[in-house]
Amino acid sequence: MNKAVLFLLILLVAVPAQARRAVSLMPSYTEIIFELGAGKELAGVSNFCNWPPETAKIEKAGDYLRPNIEKVYSLKPDVVFTGAWAGESVVKQLASLGVKVAALPEEKRVADVYSTIRLIAAQLERKAGGEALVRKLSGLLKAMPGRPGKPLKVYIEADAGGWTTGSESFLSDAVEHAGGANVFGREKRSYFQATWEEVLLLDPEAVILLEGTEREFLARPMARDLAAVKAGRVITTLNRDAFTRPGPRLFDEISRLRKLLYEKK
Amino acid sequence: MKRSSALYITAALAAACLFSLAAGPAGLSYEIIWNLRLPRTLAALTVGAGLGLAGALFQGVLKNPLSDPYILGTSAGATAAAVFCFLGGIERTSPLFFLAVFAGAFGATFLSYWLARLAGRLSDAALVLAGVAVSAFLTALVMLTLSAARERSFSLFYFVLGGLYQVDPGVLAVSALITGVCGALALARWRALDAMALGAENAYHLGLSPERERMLFFALACAATSAAVALGGTIGFVGLMTPHIVRLLTGPSARTLLPAAALGGAALLTAADAAGRTLFSPAEIPAGVVMALAGAPFFMWLLWKSSRGKA
Amino acid sequence: MTALKVSGLRFSYGDAPLIKDVSFELRGGDFMCVLGPNGCGKSTLLKLLTGYIKAAAGSVQLGGEDSAGLAPARLARLAAYVPSETATPYDFSVRETVLLGRTARAGLWRGYSAADGEAADLALEETGITRLAARSINTLSTGERQLAFIAQALAQEARLLLLDEPTSHLDLKYKSQIMGLLARLAGKGLAVAAVLHEPGLARLGCNKALLMETGGAYSFGPVAEMLAPEKLGPVYGLPPDSPLLPK
Fold it and tell me: Which ipTM score applies to this complex?
């Protein structure tokens, strides 16, 4: 009898405690939350959260640059996950409305994803699950073959028109993990637009196109002289969403990239 | 004054071309100059000439020194057309893209004209207002689409910012041809343009059909602008400032203003484009941004110098 | 040959008739002043003569040719018009402004020909502003500006010169100077018609006068007759002994 009452009491306390409502304002956070098995706790996501497919049924609360504060508030969240993109004003406004905000720092390295996972897991009281996920993802990296002696020089085009990244971005770090060397790796900056002439001079041995077609790329003057083009290493088959979000799918894409760069077809 | 100003402008043009062809991280590599810098220089010359010419034409016909080539909705129309192309999967390098942008630019201007006509009065003020309305509407449409179509919104943003990153030789040839023809035709009618500056009524009494002349100049200016935008996106500042800068040197008569505006615009944009891609290597700053940053103070200096001369 | 022959000209803005069956003739040597109260249609009449406004009925013959079918370029060679509003947004020089009068005569591609330059210089001389030729038009006084635009009209080398309120904003010196100029031009064979607000000026050279009344009534005849106070007073709604009417 006592055990039954105790069990009921625990249920009464635990169930409301478990009915947490979270709002995620970054697609990568949403994916992490689902990987942690906490997808049901999401009361709201950003407009751009499109993975996994279950997100289609969740309320949309604006984009990551300017979330709809009122909408977020009306969802009565217990915690809101925002990223560096949203800016201080979002955090301040939500805090002033009495909403708990977890403002997560921007991921500049692949390893920063682990910290993001841990922070989110802590908020959702799933520390064990968080550690398991981190182990699984870092395991994916460790399972790859070792770093090659002479890494291929890689030009990453994240957006059409020469938009690439320097060393201050997880994209660059991801390519390094995949065994490549970002041709602009010595630039201490994140996103910028590089001159085509510079790219030609650096003569990358592989090109990753996250936007635009190979045909457009080859139409650029002297594109066919690039080592990457001659070796047939113009890579357009990476999953753009998966590779450009500092989330769980990034690690699979890094493995894929490793294969695309080094395995003979 | 006239001969020396022609000299200044020619010298500036030559210097800009030299700068654009010779400057770059690869140094004086023949291959790079021929395959990369030459098309880009030609594109900058064409776009600069087209926008400078169009700016001068609009400022003359609308008698409004604040007119730029985009005043009648041209840039908004071009951008809207570019949006639909991106959404429809038409690539920047396809001839269909050029046609669409050209049609969009021209169409928006025609729409402004037609709206002003509907309102009854084809006065210059009515035209400008119609242009503002059309621009605002189309821009809002573009913004709406931008926020919804995340996938290609960056490419579109880049188009709106304007830049000569990718130059298609076919597009370049067509744009250059259109710009050249428009320039020649406009210059042929230079007297009419000067007379139009006195107003429609006075132009009539001097022996012109003001309505016909206005439509002709609009068409020429619009064609030149559309060709420039289809080639290089909506680069700002050139069309507005070049006629003013050049007018300080050559005077307001279209006979000298039109060629000077075209050549001056070509020189300014080429120099700005070259500066944008060499000064911050490996990063590239769009030509329009460089023009505004450097051109505005330059214009202020010219203005100050000329007002001192007059006093 | 008559420079200007008007027959049965009719026009109205909306329902109220403004100009009813106006007919008169002007020859080379005539200097006609057009007088009447505000809103009686003086400026409108001038614009009807040049064809800028289309008449409802009647005909206007310029130098023997019916103006109705003529292209603006041809019209500009037959009749020159000096407007009352001369806003110039850009700083053209006086000479450039005068040269614009040659628009109707100049060809397409070339610059101005020697003949154009000569006509412009002659016009500048005639109006006495040769010394201002290189100045910017926007730096001139109102009176000098008026002379510049008269010079522009003269450069057109038309036989008929129409002026809309050429003296309205000028001081007495310029009023007298311009009337003297117009009288001289008429003396050289031009037919001149000028809308004036001050009947007294008509004494400075006019030989004909056209009095227009609100509602369409008008009278035309020699200036001595038309300027009689008994005739002039009713036109302006003034008593014949009003000090504003010329004696």
Answer: 0.90
